User: What shape does this take?
Amino acid sequence: GNAEGTMAYVEEHNLLLFPRAEDKNKKNLYTLSQELSIISSVEGLKANIDTAALFLDEHIYFGTANPSLKNCQTPINEDCGIVVKSTIEGDIVSELGLEQGYRAWLVGSPVSDGEHIYITTAKQAYGEVGVYDFEAEEYRYGCSILKLDKDLNIIAYDDPDQAGCTKSTNKLLAVATGE
Assistant: This one.
């Protein structure tokens, strides 16, 4: 498999978090020693990771890609366009996905203020190859900024009305400041 995302360094454990794309073994996020030996991996997700992961309070947070391609859209691959919380050992603790109405490609890496997690997303795609559903009836948090708690519950969000976004609430400043 190849690597499209940036590695992240976890100073308190002296480890590297290495995202993988197109890994034939379906190992998506590796935890490596500084000698680059594999310590653990998140396994079983059928989707690519192409951004750096966030390490916070002994957990790893990352998102998967959701391109308008066959591997994600026909049939619907529920591992595409999700946010994941895992242990450093590679066990998935929780996910933000279709069950919560979320399906968007995480762009840029998650960041945190120590209490909340902030993510940004790309255009949303659902069920059609080569089509991003700009005018979708169901808003799935595409082209948005989201504020999450550490259990991946959505606290606030904004779709700042950029091309391809489905609605505008003009809450971007409120999302960023918590008001």
User: Anything to note?
Assistant: The chain has a mean pLDDT of 81. Helices lie at 70-73, 172-177.
